[in-house]
TrEMBL record:
Gene Ontology MF annotations: oxidoreductase activity
Top-rank taxon: Bacteria
Coiled coil: none
UniProt entry tagged with the keyword Oxidoreductase: yes
Protein name from the UniProt record: SDR family oxidoreductase
InterPro entries referenced in this protein's UniProt entry, alphabetically: NAD(P)-bd_dom_sf, SDR, SDR_fam
Keywords, in A-Z order: Oxidoreductase
Entries under SUPFAM superfamilies matching the protein: NAD(P)-binding Rossmann-fold domains (SSF51735)
Pfam families per the UniProt record, alphabetical: adh_short_C2
Family membership noted in the UniProt record: Belongs to the short-chain dehydrogenases/reductases (SDR) family.
Amino acid sequence: MDLGIDGRRAAVAASSAGLGLGVARALVAAGVHVAICGRHRDRVESAADDLGELATPLVADVSTPEGAEAFVAAARDALGGIDVLVPNAGGPPAGTFESTPLNAYEPALQLNLMSVVAMCHAAVPDMRARGWGRIVAITSSTVRQPAPSLILSNTARAGATAFLKTLAGEVAADGITVNSVQPGLHATDRMRQLGVDATTRPPDVPVGFVGDPDDFGAVCAFLCSQQARFVTGAAIPVDGGSYRGLQ
């Protein structure tokens, strides 16, 4: 399927592995020039080599607003502009209300809320000036169904979802769509850190298997497409049917 975005330019955060890399791979397959980033030069350069000539590796740490904004600026300089922005970052440490100290909340909010805000602040003005843009943020299924052991992620990503929903309404008339995608269990380093075995049949996933980052990437790439121009303000679960609610 031709997504109508051949030649566009994308900045995909935290994309040297996992879901970010899956999104970058899907965008490259659609003909998009993609700036990817990671904290470790060898890892991000290896990922770029795997993606091919349409990928530009950048060393960046998006865990703070300053680092997130710097990544967007570097991507704009490297690509000559940004048409597509994919905010993304790793998750904060696991923990419950009782086990999580108060001073752990601010770094989590910087990582999963304020980094998203900063990337959008850096990218949206140019999108508005051109009259076209796509923002597809990677959040988590815990926004829709909070996990008891992930109180920091639940809190920060819920805030990001509210920000993105608000932004979507403000920039819709400028030709910019803003959506978030909520991954469930996928075969990533984060899942392994949380002790989930990707080789077993997960009991809470109706499709019967753990998600593949490339399948997730294909969903995000469609939301970046020309065909998805009427989809904005959505928060879409990609979780194999794990979320059972009506909304």
